[in-house]
Write a structure and sequence with these properties.
single chain, 552 residues, alpha+beta, Neuraminidase, 4-stranded antiparallel sheet, 6 helices, 32 strands, elongated
């Protein structure tokens, strides 16, 4: 039963003092009848909070520590403490700003509500998403490391097969030598045995002659001793030794292949910093004079992209539907045509050594394994442009919407979309939506680096997609147009981008600080890649040549 309906208790409005109360203003801490509510709310200078009386909050004022029996219904802004009315009039708080504690309470309540809203709608869901992501990653971990172990086993078996084949060949060579050696000794034995038989016959004849009285035999005897005084030649064959160099464990490790250091990244609030790698790469200073060590003629009219398969083999694509694998001598090793017959927009070599290409006209991303083309992703409403393979064997792809009004970077694991990067924290587009070139690369600290040609900027975000910085060219060249096209990164976390209009490569550190240029008589540098030894390969658009450059 409501309190004002009890016969023994009559609760009246604090304003009119006559009508039964119905409501309560929590801001002013007064009770109101239905008629006085409107009058009370007419004072717009105060943010009233009127609720039904039965839903009012019961306020517990603190007791003043200095004045017994006094309740602290005021608040000293300077001292930042609740105070009673006696405190307010005392000299201790003279000249201080005093406010109603209910006003302070309302402000605090609003702040609490905002905190609660943010926790419920933004912060906690993010933690849930992170926890879910970690669980997913843990579920995938066993399979991924299992595959890694299988790859190591298969590679070891392949090396075993090669070593077994070499051992068997050496055994065969040894057996052949042994047979030749034995044959030579047998021949030598036959010659000696033949001479011994002749000697036995001569000795037998001499014995017979000595016993005989036949004068004619004795008188006609001719000695042959001088013929046998020189013994027959003795054949000496030296058994060869196996010239086996000392086993070098470092060379064996290099031959078997290496694992990149485990990259562990820690998120601090909104900023994700990459932790130090378990095994840091050796520091390689920049050369004062970079130099071209090889030039490859690809045979295209226009060259778009280059991707390293090894130190001396590169995949290339240009202005026709054929992708070519070439060596440093410009020799064609393999060529593959696109599945659709259209020109490939970009190529990338995965950690497994397979080739990926994007087909802008066919809206597909395709994997080439053992010369067989498999379409792994088909897009709807979006067109794939440029692609790179990450340290985690994911694919990062830049793409445009069909109407060219949106642009984004998408991360795929196999054919599953894992991440989409399109806007900054203020909801503004990270990348210009103009259909221009947007080559991309993943850095060692797992930053995602995009050369946004239309925006004339290198846009770098961290692993979670938060903007870290934009590089718009060296300040001393403000009069020249910065035109970034290709982009790549190396073991030192350098960012290298091809400035095609100015015919050079800009080198930045991982935080976007300019370090130096590479010129090397380049002409319209376009696509870039770096091999495992930090050699830079530059695809020249107009000459259709690939230049291998040592710059570290």
């Amino acid at each position: 039963m409501d309190p004002f309906r009890r016969a023994q208790i009559i609760l009246l409005c604090d304003l009119c003092k006559t009508a039964h109360l119905q409501s309560h203003c929590e801001r002013c801490d007064i009770n109101l009848c239905q008629t006085c509510v409107g009058k009370h709310l007419s004072d717009s200078s105060i943010r009233h909070k009127v609720v039904l009386y039965k839903y009012r909050k019961s306020l517990n004022y603190s007791t003043c520590p200095d004045h017994a029996g006094e309740l602290c219904k005021n608040y000293c802004e300077k001292c930042d403490i609740p105070v009673c009315s006696t405190c307010v009039s005392s000299s201790k708080h003279e000249g201080h700003d005093i406010s109603d504690i209910l006003e302070k309470l309302n402000a605090k309540t609003e702040s609490l509500q905002k905190d609660l809203d943010e926790l419920e709608t933004r912060i906690y869901p993010r933690y849930e998403e992170m926890a879910s992501g970690v669980q997913t990653e843990k579920a995938e971990l066993e399979a991924n490391y299992g595959k890694l172990t299988t790859d190591a086993d298969q590679h070891g078996e392949a090396l075993h097969r090669e070593i077994t084949a070499i051992v068997n060949q050496r055994k065969s060579d040894i057996q052949e030598m042994k047979i030749k050696h034995l044959s030579t000794l047998n021949k030598n034995t036959e010659e000696i045995t033949q001479k011994m038989a002749e000697l036995k016959q001569i000795m037998s004849d001499l014995k017979s002659m000595l016993k005989s009285n036949d004068v004619s035999l004795t008188s006609t005897y001719k000695s042959r001793n001088s013929e046998f005084r020189t013994s027959p030649p003795k054949v000496r064959v030296t058994v060869p030794s196996l010239s086996a160099p000392k086993i070098n464990k470092d060379q064996l490790n290099e031959m078997f292949g290496s694992l990149p250091p485990l990259s562990i990244n820690t998120e601090h609030g909104d900023t994700i910093k990459s932790a130090e790698a378990v095994s840091s790469p050796p520091v390689k200073p920049l050369l004062d004079e970079p130099r071209v060590t090889a030039t490859i003629d690809t045979g295209y009219n226009r060259l778009f992209s280059v991707s390293c398969l090894s130190e001396d083999q590169v995949w290339t694509c240009g202005n026709n539907n054929t992708m070519k694998l070439l060596n440093l001598q410009s020799e064609l090793l393999t060529s593959i045509q696109t599945k659709s017959g259209y020109v490939p927009r970009d190529i990338a070599v995965t950690r497994d050594g397979d080739l990926v290409y994007t087909d802008y006209d066919d809206n597909t991303i395709n994997l080439i394994k053992n010369k067989q083309i498999q379409t792994v992703i088909t897009l709807q409403g979006w067109r794939p442009r440029f692609v790179c393979s990450t340290a985690g064997n994911d694919l990062l792809v830049t793409m445009d919407s069909d109407d060219y009004k949106q642009s984004k970077v998408v991360r795929y694991s196999g054919s599953t979309e894992k991440q989409s990067i399109q806007f900054d924290d203020q909801g503004r587009p990270l990348y210009k939506s103009d259909g221009y070139y947007k080559y991309l690369s993943e850095n060692k600290n797992l930053d995602i680096c995009v050369a946004d040609c239309g925006a004339r900027a290198v846009v770098v975000v961290n692993q979670s997609g938060k903007l870290r910085f934009r590089y718009t060219g060296h300040p001393s060249y403000t009069k020249q147009s910065f035109n970034p096209v290709g982009i790549t990164t190396d073991s030192q976390s350098h960012i290298l981008t091809a400035d095609s209009h100015n015919h050079r490569i800009d080198i930045l550190d991982q935080d976007g600080q300019f370090l130096r240029y590479i010129h090397c008589y380049l002409y319209t540098p376009w696509g870039l890649c770096v091999d495992i030894k930090d050699n830079l390969f530059v695809a020249e658009y107009h000459t259709a040549k690939v230049k291998k450059i040592q710059y570290l």
